[in-house]
């Protein structure tokens, strides 16, 4: 189950725990992003660069920037 915290027009999604448990929440993230209102900006916390997820988000028209917090914590900012 994808946990999403809404803060204004930003949806904050942290999947570091799921990824550490061996889950691959990329498809759940994509489903959420595709069903959300178009004015929402997404802040997605991941344990690594998540290049496949970035590519999928860009494939549906999102602009994505990757930010490194530390070795095991990155976050993506994605918007239209």
TrEMBL record:
Domain of life assignment: Bacteria
Protein name as it appears in the record: Amino acid decarboxylase
């Amino acid at each position: 189950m994808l946990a999403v915290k809404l803060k204004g027009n930003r949806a904050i999604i942290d999947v570091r725990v799921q990824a550490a448990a061996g889950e691959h929440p990329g498809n759940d993230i994509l489903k959420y992003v595709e069903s959300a209102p178009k004015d929402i900006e997404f802040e997605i916390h991941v344990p690594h660069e998540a290049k496949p997820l970035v590519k999928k988000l860009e494939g549906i028209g999102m602009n994505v920037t990757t930010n490194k917090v530390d070795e095991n914590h990155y976050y993506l900012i994605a918007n239209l």
